[in-house]
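Comment thread on ticket #2218

A.B. wrote:
> Attaching the input chain for the structure job we discussed in standup.
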Amino acid sequence: MADRFGQFAAIDWSGARGPRQKGIAVAVCDARGGPPVLVERECAWSRGEVLAVLRDELPPGTLAGLDLGIALPFADCGAYFPGWSGSPPDARRLWAQVEAICAADLHLEAQSFVEHAALGEYFRRHGGREGAHFRCDGAFHGRGRFRVTEARQAAMGCKPYSNFNLVGAAQVGKSSLTGMRMLHALGGALPVWPVDPLPATGSVVVEIYTTIAAVAAGLSPGRSKMRDYAALNAALAVLGSAPVEGEGAIDDHSADALLSAAWLRRVAADSDLWHPPALTDEIARTEGWTFGAI
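C.D. wrote:
> Ran it. Output below, let me know if you need it in another format.
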C-alpha cells in the first residue's frame, strides 16, 4: 500500500446553483514530496470541468478525494426514503435516480430532486420547510439523519450534518446530491471506494471530510478553517508537507483542498483507514464511507 498511489488530489466541492462555482477548489500533490499545488482555471471551476478531469485527465494511480457525501443515510431506517415505494436499494441506483429526476437541471444541479413531490418530504429545506419524513423514528437528532460514517465522525469530535439537511452554512445536502450526479456520469470510469472495492492498481475516488484532515493537522474540529497562508503552512508542517508559496489571506476552499491533498498523501498507506471496523459490505453498498473516519 505504501507505493499504491503516485499522486493525490483533493476537491472541495459545491452544490450552489449556476454554471461556475467559486466554492470549488482542486489541489494536487506528488507522492515523492513537495508542496500541494492548486489547479486553477482562468474562470472559476464548473462541476462539468471537474467531471472531465476525473474521467479523462487524472494521471494513473491518483487517489482523488471529494468533499461531499457519496450517498444518503440508509442503515438507520432500512432505506433512503422509508415508506416510499421508489426508494432505491443501493448507492449506484441512488445516483441513477438522482440523475433521472434531475436530467433537465443544468450544470449538474439537483434542484428537481429536492423539489420532487414525494422526495422533498425527506429533506429540511429553506423557508422553514421540514419535510414530513425528515425525522426517522429512533434515529433522529438535531442535525438530521446520519449515515454510519457520520456517526463515526461525530464520535471523533467532528460536527457532521445530515445529507438530508439543505439549510445553513454547514449543510452538505446540495453538494452531495450534485456530487451524486457527477458520480453517476463517471459511469464506472473510476472506482468509487467503498461502493466499489479498492483495486490493486489505478486511480480511485474516495469521499473526504476536510475537517478530518484539519484535525490530523492539529486544528480543533470547531476551528478548522484556515484563512491565511501562515495558518495553512503551519498545518501543512504538522503533516510533514513542504509549505505553499504565498502570504496574507487565502480563501477557505483553497486552503481546505491544499491541506486535504497533503493529508491524503500522509495517510493513504494506513491500512486501518481502508478497513474501518464499522464498514460492512452492506454499508459499503448502500451508504459508502468517508475516508479517514474510524
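A.B. wrote:
> Thanks. Noting for the ticket: Residues 252-267 form the longest helix (16 residues).
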